[in-house]
Design a protein that fits this description.
The complex is a heterodimer of chains A (about 280) and B (about 250). Chain A is built from eleven helices and one strand. Chain A has about 280 residues and is mainly alpha-helical. Chain A has one domain: Up-down Bundle (Glutathione S-transferase Yfyf (Class Pi), Chain A, domain 2), CATH 1.20.1050. In chain A, helix 2 runs antiparallel to helix 3, helix 5 crosses helix 11 and helix 6 runs antiparallel to helix 8. Chain A starts with a helix and ends with a helix. With about 250 residues, chain B is mainly alpha-helical. Chain B has one domain: Up-down Bundle (particulate methane monooxygenase, chain B), CATH 1.20.1450.10. Chain B has ten helices and three strands, in the order αααααααββαααβ. A two-stranded antiparallel sheet of chain B has the order 1-2. In chain B, a hairpin with a 2-residue loop joins strand 1 and strand 2. Classes of the chains: A mainly alpha (about 280), B mainly alpha (about 250).
């Protein structure tokens, strides 16, 4: 009985290894183009819906934070955003919390990672950076919108209709998405940054999410400044400048991306070579 | 890998997909970084036509705009050998600014478009990229391109600003059209301190004072170009090589 069970297990493992060797679509996770389309699409949709919500409700019920309508429409939106943020963080960080099992099997059985499989990982890393960049676009839009909103309405709360999408959605989403990029690079492509078997944490893993974190951290300083020193909106005032300094950390995203470029070409070269060998063999 | 091999691999379908993803990432980050930088340093000078004065706007405007544009210009040349980074950045920051002006300033707050147009930097960005392309030297680009960036900012935008500087008399007082618009479209901040500057000794230079400002802007941008290069190197390139060792 025991011998039959062991034999079945070995057989199953052999089938799995064969699948990994021959099935080029066995990525073990979502293909990167699909990830980009779904992630980018949902993100863009969320930004458009928020903008439509603002257009509909910020003059009718967004001018006085003490009214019950404000709590219903604007704090309601805030809570929905928080749910989306928590869900995105949980999904993003738990989905990639362990190194790729397919890579482990391929390393063990083939002595290397299949080029197409590794390209999918690199593509996924690039896709996470692109989705983060899309939320960056949202930050850019909502930040300037905040500037003009406070030209016409004096702030009576930190949760104004322009702050709710800016400070409490796009800023945290940038922290999450840039964090997921670094997390993904650490758990899937660490060997490209520190070499096979290498140790250490590349600085670009830390600097890239630091941009979102510093943006969010400066919200506290900004609100303190507005509540204590300068209550009107003068956008060029110096305590707004750290927001600009924080965005400079996003340049580290390019270090994160371009480190993988040589490997993309190596993998493409191998794929092209395999294809030409297979073509010759079949002819 | 040889250049010919790279060129062949660049035609691979997968390489094209990577190109598209990179373009999306570049569009996103080269909109947010220069746009936030610009709105917080140039901010009100860029938002409102009555803020576009002859002293601070010609200097603060191009200097702050060049800071991040120079990073885009440098990273595109360093990583991709493309003399397009400054132009790319200038185009997307302008698109970002116009989206904001149309869908926030105009369609939500009802400020008229001709009161809130953003300044353009595209002509100077083209010059900056071309000078780097021809000279292959950051030094030459900073001295000529950086200077032109600051020096040409006011003349390039003058075409858009000129109609708003025409005089108009109302209630026995003479204003510019830009001032008059500012009085009608009240905001928490108005450029009153600029009026005091206009009454200062710079006024004594009469018609020459804009030349003094744009000359200073050119010199400031020559230096600002290097700050941008340094920023790009520090945050966009060096982190690729540096690894914190675990003990």
């Amino acid at each position: 009985m025991a011998a039959t069970s062991i034999s079945a297990s070995v057989e199953r493992q052999a089938v799995q290894i064969e699948e990994v060797k021959h099935d080029k679509t066995a990525h073990g996770e979502m293909p990167f183009v699909r990830f980009l389309v779904i992630g980018g699409g949902l993100g863009l949709l969320s930004l458009l819906l928020i903008r439509l919500w603002q257009g509909e409700w910020w003059f009718p019920v967004g001018m006085d934070a003490t009214t019950p309508e404000f709590a219903t429409y604007w704090l309601g939106l805030l809570y929905v955003e928080w749910i989306v943020l928590i869900a995105a963080a949980i999904i993003g960080f738990t989905a990639y919390r362990k190194p790729c099992p397919t890579c482990a099997v391929q390393r063990k059985e083939l002595g290397r990672i299949d080029p197409e499989h590794e390209l999918n990982h690199i593509g996924k890393l690039w896709a996470t950076v692109a989705v983060a960049a899309m939320f960056g676009f949202g930050v850019s839009y909502f930040a300037e919108q905040d500037a003009v909103w406070h030209q016409i309405v004096v702030r009576d709360t930190a949760f104004t209709p322009s702050h709710i999408p800016l400070f409490f959605y796009t800023f945290p989403m940038l922290i999450i998405m840039t964090g997921v990029s670094s997390w993904y690079a650490y758990n899937r492509l660490h060997h490209l940054y520190v070499g096979e078997g290498g140790k250490g944490i590349p600085i670009c893993y830390l600097l890239f999410p630091a941009g979102g974190w510093f943006l969010f951290a400066n919200v506290a300083f900004n609100e303190l400044g507005h509540s204590s020193w300068i209550t009107e909106e003068l956008f060029v005032q110096p305590y707004h400048w750290p927001f600009a300094w924080a965005t400079y950390f996003f340049f580290a995203g390019f270090a994160l991306l371009f480190k993988t470029v040589p490997r993309i070409f190596e993998n493409l070269g191998e794929i092209a070579q395999q294809a030409s060998t297979e073509a010759k063999a079949s002819s | 890998m040889k250049a010919e091999e790279l060129a062949v691999l660049g035609q691979h379908k997968m390489a094209k997909v990577f190109d598209v993803i990179l373009l999306l990432a570049l569009i996103g980050f080269f909109t947010v970084i220069p746009h936030v930088s610009r709105m917080l340093y140039m901010g009100d000078w860029d938002f409102w036509v009555d803020w576009k004065d002859k002293l601070w706007w010609p200097i603060a405007g191009p200097s702050s705009a060049l800071l991040v544009t120079a990073v885009g210009h440098y990273l595109a040349w360093y990583y991709l050998r493309l003399p397009l980074g400054a132009t790319f950045t200038a185009v997307f920051v302008l698109i970002g600014a116009w989206l904001s002006r149309i869908f926030s300033f105009y369609s939500m707050e009802y400020y008229p478009i001709n009161f809130i147009w953003p300044a353009t930097t595209i002509p100077m960005a083209l010059a900056l990229d071309l000078i780097l392309f021809w000279s292959r030297s950051y030094l030459v680009t900073s001295l000529i391109g950086g200077f032109l960036w600051g020096f040409l900012f006011y003349p390039v935008n003058w075409l858009m600003l000129m109609p708003f500087l025409q005089p108009v008399t109302l209630f026995g007082k003479t204003f510019t059209i830009a001032d008059l618009m500012g009085y009608y479209f009240i905001r928490p901040q108005t450029p009153e301190y600029l009026r005091r500057i206009d009454e200062g000794t710079l006024q004594a230079f009469l018609g020459q004072r804009i030349w003094i400002s744009i000359l200073m802007a050119g010199i400031a941008c020559t230096f600002m170009y290097w700050i941008g290069i340094g920023l790009g190197k520090l945050l966009g390139i060096l982190p690729m090589r540096k690894v914190l060792r675990q003990t």
